Automatic annotation (TrEMBL), chain A:
Identification of the protein by name: ABC transporter ATP-binding protein
CDD domains: ABC_MJ0796_LolCDE_FtsE
Species, as recorded: Paractinoplanes durhamensis
Organism classification: Bacteria, Bacillati, Actinomycetota, Actinomycetes, Micromonosporales
Keyword ATP-binding applies: yes
UniProt cross-references to SUPFAM superfamilies, sorted A to Z: P-loop containing nucleoside triphosphate hydrolases (SSF52540)
Pfam families associated with the record: ABC_tran
Keywords from the UniProt entry: ATP-binding, Nucleotide-binding, Transport
Residue ranges of the TM segments: none
Residue stretches making up the ABC transporter domain: 8-230
Keyword Metal-binding: no
Recorded GO MF terms: ATP binding
From TrEMBL, chain B:
Keyword Membrane: yes
Signal peptide from the UniProt entry: none
Top-level lineage group: Bacteria
Subcellular localization(s) per the UniProt record: Cell membrane
Residue intervals of the ABC3 transporter permease C-terminal domain: 70-173, 341-476
Topology within the bilayer: Multi-pass membrane protein
Main location: membrane
Organism: Paractinoplanes durhamensis
Entry protein name: ABC3 transporter permease C-terminal domain-containing protein
Ranges that cross the membrane: 21-47, 67-88, 109-133, 153-173, 194-211, 223-246, 280-297, 331-359, 380-404, 454-476
Keyword rRNA-binding: no
Keywords in alphabetical order: Cell membrane, Membrane, Transmembrane, Transmembrane helix
């Protein structure tokens, strides 16, 4: 992926936690509609890279550019607005508000963006239907299985029709079969919409859904590129 | 974000959130009623002989009655402030999830403060309704149910509590950074400094201004009240903030000289969060200072009554007449008793606040406590750590509060000379002066320090906190359940 055609790119991204470096100059570019898997062993900086690219964390050095804009220069509020309009974020667990129903959770980004309640709920209900959990619209997350929660979380991440979806081990808390079903639905929907995806995983079966794989080791890109086997 | 969205997100919550909302509303209700009552008393004009209560009849006594009612309102307001942190961990997780969905930092603080403001407003409105109903139900001769404060004052008081509660919530949230990945608290790298001592000194100086001015400088009554009031307030603020430094210092001493894991845990907690004592003990310390002022003032009054008795005896007025208020001391003692009752009520409310704060801090660390228990730390060690952590800064802070309250009153008068003016008059050679009738009675009356009463006040406050700690330790037992390790 050349940087000229990249929708999202990171150049020389470095980030430390105290004296411990997590990323030490990582370059990455993601094109429109492309699914990129980031793999590597535990503690290699995969999640930190995703957080930096999504604007959740600021980099210590290097730049993160989205549509030719350096989002590292943006305020926290501006990056929050970017996440609710242009980006979708999907974690392993914990992103649903336990006190809100499924439909309210999915409608949340729309409501935060200023949509009316009725309109937001209608769109949210459509997304829940699309991901096969429409009948759970009025259930709270505590009453759902892990797979159902992850489908709801996916609906919430995609409800604003983001250009980029950041998925950090999205099926890590699910059993193999449910994980595959959920991931299949995620990929189906993002392909339909032309959404780019940055997919963090350490599972070969998950990485296999990506168009391209990059491998991180000790906070840097592995030059050998010997990852989990995408494209091989 | 639309107001409807804000309201929905603000009221979303679990049972603890519901409890927090109820307690916040309840404390707002009580504070509003107390403040409306204070405003009603201040609305009475002139001699009001239509009431049977002498404290309401005399114009000079009514500001004191109002101040006493406000004194009750203050710890209730502080309780409302402490309720804001109840169930905070679950709310923090919810806010982080909302941030992940795209809420800005400002919006997340707005959601948290809106919840407090809405609960307080409901409580305030309920307080107004309770006040209006009570006016209809209660008889006039005893209480001023025939008058109302001006409408703008009522509106102001009803809005005051929600605004203060929302502001307190926003201030408490300023240490909390809600990120989409969770909630972090800002860690101070430097411990508190003893600068609140300057506030205490400034408070004492302000209080001393009207009492130590040369006689030829006359301050108006309003200026005198302003100096005395601001002096007391600054002293209170100084002591409350000074508790941060006391906690930090006590923590360092505990860590250095303490024996065993309980003192080590308590010492480190005090160093890590030295302002916890200021937050949780603020209302109690304020009540203790007010109580110490009242008790010391009672001693001053008693000394003045002795002065009047001696003076009247010297002048030959032994038939119950004569100078001063010595003929009706019970009335003044009754007023002081009213203040002491208010302080006692305030202390009980403040102790409830301590319990809430303690329970919240234990619940917030329940996984750590459960992990320590799982690792073999006995529960009694954790209980001892919580007790050390609460009581170590409290005891010196209480002593300081009692000393400051007494010192303020001693600035008004610490000794009253009897008979000396006549002796001086003769020595100056003024022809019109009489010789002292009873020169053997010339003496200086020292205003005693009410050691017993002060010890009782301090002991009562300590006991209230001990009860709160005891109740809080029940929460600790539940929080060290190993199931907590599985909680999300």
């Amino acid at each position: 992926m050349s940087e000229r055609s990249a929708l999202l790119s990171g150049i020389g991204i470095a980030r430390s936690y105290g004296a411990t470096p997590a990323l030490r100059g990582v370059d990455l570019a993601v094109g429109a509609g492309e699914i990129v898997a980031v793999t590597g062993p535990s503690g290699c900086g995969k999640s930190t890279l995703l957080h930096c690219l999504a604007g959740i964390l600021r980099t210590d050095s290097g730049t993160v550019t989205y549509r030719d804009q350096d989002i590292g220069l943006w305020s926290e509020a501006a990056r929050s607005r970017l996440r609710r309009t242009e980006f979708g974020v999907l974690f392993q667990f914990g992103q649903l508000v336990p006190e809100l129903t499924a439909v309210e959770n999915v409608a949340l980004p729309l409501l935060l963006a200023g949509s009316g309640r009725r309109e937001a709920r209608q769109v949210a209900a459509e997304w829940l239907d699309r991901l096969g959990v429409g009948e759970l619209a009025e259930q709270r997350p505590g009453a759902m299985s892990g797979g159902q929660q992850q489908r709801c979380a996916t609906a919430r991440a995609l409800v604003t029709q983001p250009r980029v979806l950041f998925a950090d081990e999205p099926t890590g808390a699910l059993d193999a079969l449910t994980g595959e079903q959920v991931l299949g639905e995620i990929v189906r929907v993002v392909r339909e919409q032309g959404t780019s995806v940055v997919l963090i995983t350490h599972e070969a079966s998950v990485a296999a859904y990506a168009d391209r794989e990059i491998v991180l080791r000790d906070g840097v890109l592995d030059p050998t590129g010997l990852g989990l086997g995408v494209g091989r | 974000m639309r107001p409807a969205t804000l309201a929905r997100l603000a009221v979303a919550g679990n049972r603890t959130d519901t409890l927090r909302t109820i307690l916040t509303a309840l404390s707002a209700l009580l504070a509003t009623v107390a403040m409306l009552a204070a405003a009603t008393v201040l609305t009475i004009t002139g001699w009001a002989e239509r009431y049977t209560n002498p404290l309401l009849i005399e114009p000079g006594l009514r500001p004191g009655v109002s101040a006493t009612l406000i004194l009750v309102a203050l710890p209730v307001l502080a309780l409302a402030g402490q309720c804001i942190r109840l169930g905070a961990p679950a709310r923090d997780r919810r806010l982080a999830a909302i941030r992940l969905a795209g809420a800005t930092p400002r919006e997340s603080v707005l959601i948290a403060t809106a919840e407090t403001a809405v609960a307080s407003l409901l409580g305030s409105v309920a307080g107004l309704v309770a006040y209006l109903v009570a006016r209809k139900v209660i008889d006039r001769p005893a209480l001023p149910t025939d008058i109302l404060p001006p409408a703008p004052v009522i509106v102001l008081l009803v809005l005051l509590v929600p605004v203060l509660a929302a502001a307190a919530g926003a201030v408490l949230m300023r240490q909390v950074i809600v990120t989409p990945l969770g909630v972090e608290r800002r860690i101070r790298t430097r411990g508190p400094r003893p600068w609140p001592g300057l506030l205490i000194a400034a408070g004492i100086v302000l209080f001393a201004v009207p009492t130590r001015l040369p006689e030829h400088i006359n301050l108006s009554k309003n200026w005198v009240y302003a100096f005395l009031g601001s002096g007391v307030m600054l002293t209170m603020v100084g002591i409350v903030l000074g508790t941060g430094w006391i906690s930090s210092t006590a923590g360092r001493l505990l860590r250095r000289y303490g024996r065993g894991p309980a003192t080590l845990l308590a010492g480190q907690r005090l160093i890590t969060d030295p302002w916890n004592g200021s937050r949780t003990m603020a209302a109690l310390l304020a009540a203790v200072i007010a109580g110490a002022v009242a008790l010391a003032y009672r001693e001053l009054l008693a000394t003045e009554f002795r002065y009047y008795d001696i003076y009247n005896a010297m002048m030959g007025s032994t038939d119950g007449g004569g100078m001063g208020a010595a003929e009706a001391p019970e009335f003044y003692y009754g007023a002081i008793r009213l203040v002491v009752v208010a302080v006692s009520l305030a202390s009980v409310v403040a102790a409830a606040g301590v319990l809430i704060a303690l329970a919240e801090s234990i619940v917030a660390r329940r996984r750590t406590y459960a992990a320590l228990t799982a690792a073999g730390v006995p529960r009694r060690t954790l209980s001892a750590a919580v007790a050390w952590q609460t009581l170590t800064p409290l005891i010196p802070a209480l002593v300081l509060a009692l000393a400051a309250g007494d010192a303020l009153v001693r600035l008004i008068d610490s000794e009253i000379p009897v008979g000396y003016e006549f002796r001086d008059c003769v020595a100056a050679g003024y022809g019109g002066c009489e010789a002292p009738r009873h020169p053997e009675m010339a003496q200086i009356l020292h205003v005693p320090i009410p050691w017993g009463s002060l010890a009782l006040l301090g002991g009562g406050a300590l006991l209230a906190v001990l009860v709160a700690v005891g109740a809080g330790l029940l929460v600790l037992r539940a929080s060290t359940d190993l199931d907590e390790l599985r909680a999300g």
